[in-house]
Design goal:
Distance between the termini: 58 Å
Radius of gyration: 20 Å
Strand content: 35-45%
Order of helices and strands: HEEEEEEEHEEEEEHEHE
Shape: globular
Helix content: 10-25%
Largest sheet: 9 strands, mixed
Number of domains: 1
Number of helices: 4
Structural class: mainly beta
């Protein structure tokens, strides 16, 4: 009788399925970031801790070999990390071997008036109609920062020429794996600044553009040099 019930149960209950996902993994020099706890050092010899990371990705294009592609031009994802348990996951339509996306939001999205999903101003990433959304927010603490209690904060945004802060990126992904990772390395950003001189960027302009380029060019598939 128990065997019959077991077979019946398998027939009426669908097997569990797992959506294909890509994880964005924040690292520093290839090592996973330990938020607020670990102390890092940049090229200027300044020590710091990282406490918050938030950024937009948009306009996804997924590829599988040369024959399969799905484009999601209207898709917007807000990814956030700040604790060691944070996981930044993106659902994929299939197991991709390549992924292209925009780091940040383009000017058309910025002025579209959309406030749905990840674009909800209540999420804390919207400035104002003339400055738009923060593309990327990075915060932390350093004894070398002149900010309050040693805080540094980079709120990088701006969509108007000549200081737009969005960038297109493509990465290759290993095939045949149910779970794939893309790394975002914050070391190039932190090595590219001195916290004694630059501890706060909160408005659009050249500083925001320069720093966003360092971040936007630091995506790579895991294991890629």
């Amino acid at each position: 009788m128990n065997k019959i019930l077991f077979i019946f149960f398998l027939c009426i209950c669908p097997l569990a399925t797992h959506a294909q996902q890509v994880q964005i993994r924040a690292v520093f020099g290839g090592e996973a970031i330990r938020w607020s706890a670990a102390e890092y050092q940049n090229a200027a010899g300044e020590k710091f801790r990282l406490s918050d990371l938030s950024f937009y990705l948009s306009e996804f294009s997924w590829y599988q070999g040369e024959d399969k592609a799905i484009h999601e031009h209207q898709r917007v994802e807000l990814l956030q990390a700040g604790t060691d348990s944070s996981r930044m996951l993106i659902d994929a339509p299939f197991s991709p071997t390549g992924l292209c996306f925009r780091f940040g939001l383009d000017s058309a999205t910025q002025v579209s008036g959309r406030t749905d999903g990840a674009l909800d101003p209540a999420l804390g990433m919207y400035w104002a109609w003339n400055t738009g959304y923060i593309q990327c927010r990075i915060e932390g603490y350093s004894p070398d920062s002149k900010g309050k209690k040693g805080k540094f904060e980079f709120h990088l945004g701006g969509y108007a020429s000549p200081f737009s802060t969005d960038h297109k990126m493509c990465v290759n992904l290993p095939s045949g794996q149910p779970f794939q990772e893309v790394e975002l390395d914050l070391k190039p950003l932190m090595d590219g600044i001195s916290l004694r001189k630059t501890w706060s960027v909160l408005t659009p302009g050249k500083d925001a553009q320069d720093l966003s380029r360092l971040v936007g060019k630091s995506f790579r598939s895991r294991g890629q040099k």
